[in-house]
Amino acid sequence: MKSSTVSAHAAAVLAAGMLLAAIPRSANAGPGHEGGHHEDAGHMIEQMRELHKGHEHGHDFEAIESMKPEEMERVMAAMQDIGLALPSLDPVHGRELFVGKGCIVCHSVNGIGGEVGPPIDAANMAHTMNAFEFAARMLRGAEPMIAMQKELFGDQIELSGQDLADLVAFAHDAEEQAKLHKADIPERFRTLIQ
Fold it and tell me: Please, what is the Cα angle at 46 between 30 and 78, to 5 degrees?
């Protein structure tokens, strides 16, 4: 291969990994889908084309389509190992965490939940999901938020990077937020909601 072909292919592989990493898990889950593996590449590429059709820059989807599934899996694993790829985003798990971890005590979604912190309504979120900005906002409010968690729950809420990614996905998914009902709030949290 010529070096320009190798560079173009490498760029396509990198772009593919970053684009696929940004597709919410619920969007790429299908029969046989497990643990974040991307087995229906054709469907995902169509989703990527749709998501990126309005961009002024282009993506080499033909190069991405020519990748073998094993190659895509290796790229995704390598990108995650070196910190270039976001974890899969699962808004369903994000909804479960929002309720189960107690976020709902201080934050509301569509009027359901507490009013101590800002509401987390997808309708009010920026159209472009920026997980880093979301995390930065949480960090700016960390001290009072942790103090409140310790007061209400006895300790601070522990979240993994995957948990945070899933909460970000939920915060931006109006369809998943519409599934949240007052009856979903665990009894231990109902009395804490002000």
Answer: 70
Q: Which residue type, as a one-letter code, is found at position 93?
A: H
pTM > 0.70 = no
Q: What is the pLDDT of residues 106-161, one digit of tens each?
A: 999 999 999 999 999 999 988 777 888 888 888 888 999 999 999 999 999 999 98
Contact 117, 109 (CB under 8 A): no
Query: Is the C-alpha dihedral spanning 123, 125, 126, 131 positive or negative?
Result: negative
> Are the C-beta atoms of 117 and 145 separated by less than 8 Å?
yes
One-letter amino acid for residue 177 of the chain: Q
Coil, helix or strand at residue 24: strand
SS3 of residue 173 by DSSP = coil
Q: What is the DSSP string of 65-100?
A: HTS-HHHHHHHHHHHHHTT-SPPPB-HHHHHHHHHH
| Residues 88 and 163: beta-carbon distance below 8 Å | no
